[in-house]
Design brief:
Layout (H helix, E strand, L loop, with lengths): L1 H12 L18 H5 L18 H21 L9 E4 L3 E4 H25 L10
Length: 130
Amino acid sequence: MVERAIIRTADHIIQKSPRLFPLWRRVHWPIWLVEARLIRRNSPIELDPALVGKKEEMLGVLRLTRERAFAFLAETEKRDLSAYRWKHVFLGPLNVYEWFEMIAAHQLRHAKQMKEIGGRLPKVVESSQI
């Protein structure tokens, strides 16, 4: 969901001229904080259960979204998108390239989160032989 929103916003804002931001309004927290999980944050948006589907459906949506992200980068590779920016709720204003870095950091954050949760689950050992 985050990745789709980022791509949709990037698609939208690059259709216009970039807004000029003074240097002090371009300062933001480092993106590595997202991946590091040093600061625990709840999502600023509520999860809509209607958006959660079956595993294969969700993986298909993720695959299509990832393909769209790569297509966006290929379509815009000859443009300098560093002047296009919008605000991240926690990090501050990021440019398009930083938003795509944030996608990667966000993915790694969730991978670490799942590993952490998996480590707390009880271990069940199945044995077919006694």
